[in-house]
Amino acid sequence: MCPGAALRTLGNLTLPGTVLAQDYPTRPVKIIVPFGAGGPADVYSRVLAQHLSDALKEPFVVEDRPGAGSLIGTDAVAKSPPDGYTLLAMSNTHTTNESLIPNKPFQLMRDFVPVAGINYSDLVMVIHPSVPAKDLKEFIAYAKSKPGELNYASSGAGTPYHMAAELFKAMSGTNLVHVPHKASGEMRNSVIGGHVQMAFDAITTMAPNVKAGQVRALGTSAAKRSSVLPEAPTIAEAGVPGYESTIWLGIMAPTGTPKAIVDKLNAEINKVITRPDVKEAWDQQGAVPLVMTPGEFETYLRADIEKWAKVVKSAGLRAE
């Protein structure tokens, strides 16, 4: 076969996928959020869906399907046709669950393909005002004086809130009891209502409650102070040197989704998260766009899986 014929043959092989991507989407696209309403994944998926709907001229519809620490909604996407019409909004809950819950009905890097990052943000450690501690060092001392008596809330095993608290426990030498909830909204209400003493939450959603005096911020989780709560020290500077943890979000699709569609979605999502108006709004909330190619996102995911596997092993964690 001459070189020209070989190129024509290769072109014919790739043409269907290219044409498919050019036409995509031709009907509504579903973004399944395996977490509760009102949390970061839900909030930012809706921002993404609105702009993708405008850009691609078909509805992108967000469906919250929480339960079992994200497993229910995630498994539903894993079993969906790999045609680009069912997407997964995911977070570091998923990379943690790879080691925390090994016997899942799916495996993240086997049953899904990385599409794009969305954003990342700091967490904030908050306590109910009834806790007699004005800063982090006082809280650590108080917790050590009552081992096993103080509770912390999370939205489920393996979520960034759970892992941030477990990392804090390990690094601070405190014994706090985990109280998992079905969704981040329930977790938030528990600490605001004083049903539990402490929680880690995304700064993007908890900052208004801190400013309203409903909870007391003891520290933020990144390496430097947050512009959203600049008066709150980092946990590292407030009493736990070296502490760092964040929450991040991304989009994946079922394995087998045509590469051309994945690439098109990646390009469109990156356009959305780098829009000046979106970046400005997110900056005010403490969220930073996570701009990556599908390949870069895959590398990011594999590194995060490895990172949390070490934490899970060293802390002896297991799903509850």
Q: Can you put this structure into words, describing what you see?
A:
With 320 residues, this protein is of the alpha/beta class. The protein contains 13 helices and 10 strands. It has helices spanning 3-23, 40-56, 71-78, 92-100, 108-111, 136-145, 160-172, 184-192, 203-211, 235-238, 259-273, 276-285, 294-315; strands at residues 29-33, 60-64, 86-91, 112-127, 151-154, 177-180, 198-202, 216-220, 246-254, 287-289. Strands 1, 2, 3, 4, 5, 6, 7, 8, 9 and 10 form a 10-stranded mixed sheet that branches. Helix 2 links the parallel strand 1 (29-33) and strand 2 (60-64). The radius of gyration is 21 Å and the shape is globular. The protein starts with a helix and ends in a 5-residue tail after the last helix. Mean pLDDT is 92; it is low at 1-15.
